[in-house]
Amino acid sequence: xxxxxxxxxxxxxxxxxxxxxxxxxxxxxxxxxxxxxxxxxxxxxxxxxxxxxxxxxxxxxxxxxxxxxxxxxxxxxxxxxxxxxxxxxxxxxxxxxxxxxxxxxxxxxxxxxxxxxxxxxxxxxxxxxxxxxxxxxxxxxxxxxxxxxxxxxxxxxxxxxxxxxxxxxxxxxxxxxxxxxxxxxxxxxxxxxxxxxxxxxxxxxxxxxxxxxxxxxxxxxxxxxxxxxxxxxxxxxxxxxxxxxxxxxxxxxxxxxx
Length: 258
Prior knowledge:
CATH architecture of the domain at 11-121 and 182-250: 3-Layer(aba) Sandwich
InterPro entries: AB_hydrolase_1, AB_hydrolase_fold, AB_hydrolase_sf
Mean pLDDT: 92
CATH superfamily of the domain at 11-121 and 182-250: Alpha/Beta hydrolase fold, catalytic domain
CATH topology of the domain at 11-121 and 182-250: Rossmann fold
Number of strands: 8
Strand order of the largest sheet: 1-2-4-3-5-6-7-8
Helix content: 25-40%
Radius of gyration: 17 Å
Shape: globular
Structural class: alpha/beta
Order of helices and strands: EEEHEHEHEHHHEHEHH
Largest sheet: 8 strands, mixed
Protein name: Pimeloyl-ACP methyl ester carboxylesterase
Pfam families: Abhydrolase_1
Organism: Flavisolibacter ginsengisoli DSM 18119
Low-confidence stretches: none
């Protein structure tokens, strides 16, 4: 399905459905296709919002996790969303974490899947020569348990980004920022109910990372999905959506008085 991209000032975003906001933050090579199944499922009950993160539009000084978190904060303020369920995949999860730690007031719950912020295997020690399609194909396949998920369309999308010298510089800047910005000492300050959904076969942020998030974030619950890599909402969409559905419904139930 095609979604219309809305604009307000410097912000570009998708907004589908009505109800409590469910805001989705994409990763470093994230695209709308990453969230297609999730948007279609939840737009019937929630206002599903996907801000386009300015990965390549910030000046190099602010091309960082912190710079993206500031953008998200300004976006939520501008749109005046309240009681936000904030979901982030990969770098998007990291941005969500930084935002919640600095500006918790609008956030009702946090959902992390394959999030950086503690540890991640990046592009590796060497960065690709521009124009190395085979390298990009292999790196895209590593994102998934099933390499067939790395369709030609998806690989072409990533390849197109890496053909641009300035974009490659900014990808490296963001990847290095994510590695430097370790949140281990701050995670116990998160008060929001937090859902962690992880692929059992994630090689970029392996399962031990999820367990560490679960240990450090006080009000968190952890679910693993089998035969699943770094993008559960794409690779095992039905199971991911069922877990998220249950979590959000539980939050909306009134507390029982004993």
